[in-house]
Amino acid sequence: MSQRIYILPETLTNKIAAGEVVERPASVIKELIENSLDAGATDISVAINAGGRRLIRVTDNGHGMSREDALLSLERHATSKIRVDADLDKIITLGFRGEALPSIASVSRFTLATREIGSQEGTEIIMEGGRIRDVRACGMPSGTVISVEQIFYNLPARLKFMKSSETETGHVGDVIARMSVSRPDVSFSCTSDERELLRLQRSDLQRRLAQVIGKDSSQHLYPVNGEGISGFISSPALVRSGSQAIYTYINGRFIRDKVVQHAVMQAYRGVIDRGRYPVVALFIEIPPGEVDVNVHPTKHEVRFRRQSIVHDAIQTAIEEVLRRSPWLVAQPVSVMSNSSGGATGQAYRERITAASQASLVLPSHPPCRTALAEHSTKESVEPIIITTYNSTVCESSPSFQPEQPQSESAGYFSELNIIGQFHSEYLLCQSDSEMVIIDQHAASERVAYQLLKKQFLTGGIESQRLLFPETVELSFSEVAVSVKFSLDLAGIGFELEPFGGTTIMVSAVPRLVALKDPILLIRNILADLACFSTSSAFNDALENLLSRIACHSVIRGAHPLEQRQIKELLYSMDQTDFAASCPHGRPVSHVLSLAELQKIFKRT
Ligand code: ADP
Ligand code: MG
């Protein structure tokens, strides 16, 4: 009889557990901050070196541990937070699994120094790869300091997955930022390679949020006060291209939950464009027995006992604020007067939709401006630009700019006879016995794309300096991306530089989009790039990025064009190396022959 099955040694089981809990430096910091908060700390400081790869240190002023507890805390499944089965149903602490410390210690060189309040001296425990190397008394203030050096030094496979220092630092900043929002009463600070990354004084939620998402953005926040639901949500004027600024907390724990996120997005449906996300910090207080946090080791996911009640409560609480808030009051009377009756259900939704569209669409199609145009109004989102634009192009809005007005010999498209425009979206033209239907949006996009590509290949995309550089508030990860790819981004027309904290300064943008809310485009591009890690990624993403800029540079939807503008578009199409589809793969034109028409009308 052979024995095939063995119980694994603890150092190995800890390493396996670490695989789930310790993904990267930011996840170590999340676990350590959770412990500090559970220990009642009011001051937490983090230091990292080389994005956390060389060193992560979290120092707190919590209650600390005795020598015995400190030793126990490094054992697997050792916790002070639950004791018996029934406790699992009433978890009020952030931790409870008793896994984090031994897991982290098993994949690093780890030092725990801690002094219990009231005790004479502290204890220092030094570990290497999960094994205790030394335990000694030490002098220190009360509280706990945990240092994690050379993370994954004994787990080469994991080490390979670590990203650049900037990227890891970005994740660290983001983790601290979102945890800090749940506890404005606690001060947080973080240094990266001895330089201050963030410093958040104790304050209230509104001020903390302003520090985290930026002062400008925070002016668009409105308070939510539902039963068991509180926090702040953004007006439709403040949107992001990803869901990273949706901060949701269940009983103080940051979570990413599909049900909660869906409820938030449902409430904003019709109020913000598709593909856009609001900024939200929402705190849901729910009896611990109603929610299971023991779903995943990282505790980012939860399961609700009564999911639909929670969903609807969140949605209603947000809708309630969206319905009452000032941006709706400012709408044209005709919009509001339609719904003087009960503002519920369909009527209410229609009202929100109509009202928000009235306010949302306007700023994205700026009127033509000439050189040194007056300063934009406070609400305006467009930057001020220096150069004069070809007035024809500016009026007609599609951003292509024919290099020459129609002159000599034309090509296929220029020679078409223009019949007219259908639905302000399609151009109807005739060529001998064929009818040519052109999707004006797809065509403009294709023209813009080709132009960008040509410019890129011949020395760089034409850039437009902003007279007054704009500042943009981003997440830590997005700032990291903007720094990492700054040279590449310059090659496609964007000049961005760090402006302290999570703000970047935009001093130039591709000329094609200078009038088209380039800031929104920058957010989208950084969000795209954040998905990539290596710097070769930029080249992989290039086609997509160019098509994103092209798409952004043209007006979507119905747009009446004058004859002259149609001619310009057709002329530009002839200048373009035309594959008959726009960068999104949609066709640009369709030919209907006379024979086909006759067939439709049964003339043959
Ligand atoms: P858990 O947090 O799930 O209990 P951990 O492995 O993270 O498991 O921590 C084990 C125990 O160590 C905790 O239950 C707590 O008692 C103690 N501990 C960890 N970090 C600290 C800290 N910063 N201050 C005081 N006690 C701590
Ligand atoms: Mg813990």
Report on the structure:
By secondary structure, this protein is of the alpha+beta class. It has 3 domains: 10-200, Heat Shock Protein 90 (2-Layer Sandwich); 205-386, Ribosomal Protein S5, domain 2, CATH 3.30.230; 417-590, 2-Layer Sandwich (Ribosomal Protein S8, Chain: A, domain 1). 36% of the residues lie in helices and 22% in strands. An 8-stranded mixed β-sheet has the order 5-4-3-6-2-1-7-8, covered by helices on one side. Helix 15 (440-457) packs across helix 19 and helix 18 (518-530) packs antiparallel against helix 19. The radius of gyration is 29 Å and the shape is elongated. 40% of the residues are buried. Bound molecules: adenosine-5'-diphosphate and magnesium ion.
Q: What topology does this entry show?
A:
Layout: H1 10-21, H2 25-38, E1 43-49, E2 55-60, H3 67-73, H4 100-106, E3 109-115, E4 122-128, E5 131-138, E6 143-149, H5 156-160, H6 165-182, E7 187-192, E8 195-200, H7 205-213, H8 215-218, E9 221-226, E10 229-234, E11 239-240, E12 246-250, E13 253-255, H9 258-268, E14 277-278, E15 280-284, E16 291-292, E17 303-304, H10 307-324, H11 326-329, H12 333-337, H13 345-361, H14 391-396, E18 417-422, E19 426-431, E20 434-439, H15 440-457, E21 463-473, H16 476-484, H17 486-491, E22 495-498, E23 503-510, H18 518-530, H19 537-553, H20 563-574, E24 589-593, H21 594-600
Residues 31, 34-35, 95, 100 line the site of magnesium ion.
